[in-house]
Amino acid sequence: xxxxxxxxxxxxxxxxxxxxxxxxxxxxxxxxxxxxxxxxxxxxxxxxxxxxxxxxxxxxxxxxxxxxxxxxxxxxxxxxxxxxxxxxxxxxxxxxxxxxxxxxxxxxxxxxxxxxxxxxxxxxxxxxxxxxxxxxxxxxxxxxxxxxxxxxxxxxxxxxxxxxxxxxxxxxxxxxxxxxxxxxxxxxxxxxxxxxxxxxxxxxxxxxxxxxxxxxx
Length: 217
What we know:
By secondary structure, this protein is of the alpha+beta class. 23% of the residues lie in helices and 28% in strands. The chain has 6 helices and 13 strands. The chain has helices at residues 69-75, 125-131, 136-143, 176-183, 192-199, 206-216; strands at 5-13, 17-20, 23-25, 30-31, 36-39, 42-43, 61-65, 92-95, 107-110, 113-120, 148-154, 156-158, 163-168. The chain has a 7-stranded mixed barrel. Strands 6-5-12 form a 3-stranded antiparallel sheet, with no helix packed on it. The chain has a two-stranded antiparallel ribbon with strand order 2-3. A hairpin with a 2-residue loop joins strand 2 and strand 3. The protein is globular, with a radius of gyration of 16 Å.
């Protein structure tokens, strides 16, 4: 059996810029040419505006599967954000695996670095504002096309064109899609036992463990 892998179309970084009113955001990321350092905090040169909800150990690197872009283009034909990677503010524009194929706790190579899936991406109002639409956040919640976050296990360097090979899969029953559905998409109502199990999993990001505890009652 071949080892699951993704290819990296682009690595992207950004810095906070004016976004809406007094709000700033680094969601408008741009591809990096050549090698980029992968640090505990994420990709070198990347920054966040809201340190409470973004960045940190459990949100060091955001991946969004380019496999979803065709689906989005069909629903928002002609939207210029889909002309290049970075529409969703991702650091890694990947291809080959989606949230259905990637599991919580999966460890992947990223160049000479090693990264670990910590939780899914929880969409917020900034996506609607970025796209100039009122339905992007709701569509992501409904479909689970959310992307996910990595924590960095081992620092290194990476660049576009790299292959991200799966190194370890300790929780094959916990796909990123399943975790998102349970904690964000309303699935906790029908499977409270699974939510309680998530609340006790140290590999799950702290914020989402807290959310699981609350949803489990």
